[in-house]
Amino acid sequence: MDESRMEAQRTPLYPLYKEYGAKTVDFSGWEMPVQFSSILQEHEAVRTQVGLFDVSHMGEFDVRGKEAKDFLQYMITNDMNRLTPGRALYSPICYDDGGTVDDLLVYKLAEEQFMVVVNAGNIQKDFDWFAQHASRFDVSLKNVSNDIALLALQGPKAHEVLQPFVEQPLSEIRPFRFTHLKSVSEGAIVSRTGYTGEDGFEVYLPAADAPALWKALLTPREGTVVPVPCGLGARDTLRLEARLPLYGHELSAKITPLEAGVDFAVKLKKEGDFIGRGPLVKQAEEGFKHKIVGLQVEGRGIPRSEYAVQVNGKQVGVVTSGTMSPTLHVPIALALVDIAYCEIGTAVDVLIRNQPVAAKVVETPFYHKA
């Protein structure tokens, strides 16, 4: 059988897509909605009201055992000592040379039990990487991705929509904390996290229970706004405005977390060794050859991934992500640029359809939540 033509994977919510008008595309081997109404409408809904995303294609690993914390401390660049039960932590994981395997979230469910959430396109690669190093520790590792669905409710009105389903006042849940659902699903957790630059929540629950919660969240209630179903198109424009990295673009095996600008999640002096530490320490001490910067295009044209960044006709970088910002109404991009051209205000050109278009290096994030 030709593996390249294998049937795309589908989330537990796939049977509902047609009912809500989804237009689907292939994303890392998954048949996912790129939009339901329009990318612009969905983007605007998240910025001003509330949007609902199916992100059940993300992967989840169960990590438990006496040395589970020590194992994860060795695998990730961030510091596991910052975690207590009920808290989540963002972190890259690195190869031995400091290049990025993936970026992920670690949830501390109990003293010796954690949930690791990884990007959909990296599930098997990440699991193999974890398994390769697990034998050194007293830890059990299980891929539970097929058992768990994930819904993301994002936007300034997200708490109003979700509150009826949660006993605890959502205002008490600080960012990167989580609690449990009151109804709809046993064992579901609600996390104050997201990937849009807005306030919001992510709900992890058994896969079989996801359709019922999706429908319940989209059911009109008196005095409460109804969420707008959102696809991956709006998810991408939202995260780009907020300067949130996407693996395979701003982070990769060839781009370290320091070069990507997520140094806040790289604790070089933390207790215990971690994979990639030596090269990252060296890079921090000696400086970078290039790094990710924000660009605003001043001429006409939309920058796209892989477009060249030039100065006086010489290539000095490459666009990693780009779009027409729905909020700012200007073309924006993230780009990996030679360090000599990374200062704010530096004039560059982006080669759009083989024509140099004026741009400049600008501060990021492009968008700040009000």
Structure summary:
With 370 residues, the chain is of the alpha+beta class. It has helices at 14-17, 39-48, 68-75, 123-134, 158-162, 210-217, 232-241, 257-260, 277-286, and strands at residues 23-27, 30-35, 51-54, 59-64, 88-94, 100-110, 113-118, 140-143, 148-154, 178-180, 189-191, 200-206, 228-230, 290-297, 308-311, 314-324, 331-338, 347-352, 355-362.
How many DSSP helices? 9
Helix content: 10-25%
What characterizes the major β-sheet?
Answer: 6 strands, mixed
What is the number of beta strands?
A: 19
Radius of gyration over alpha carbons?
21 Å
Between the first and last Cα atoms, what is the distance in angstroms? Answer: 52 Å
Helix-strand makeup class: alpha+beta
- In percent terms, what proportion of residues is strand? 25-35%
Adjacency order of strands in the biggest sheet: 10-11-12-9-3-13
Approximate shape: globular
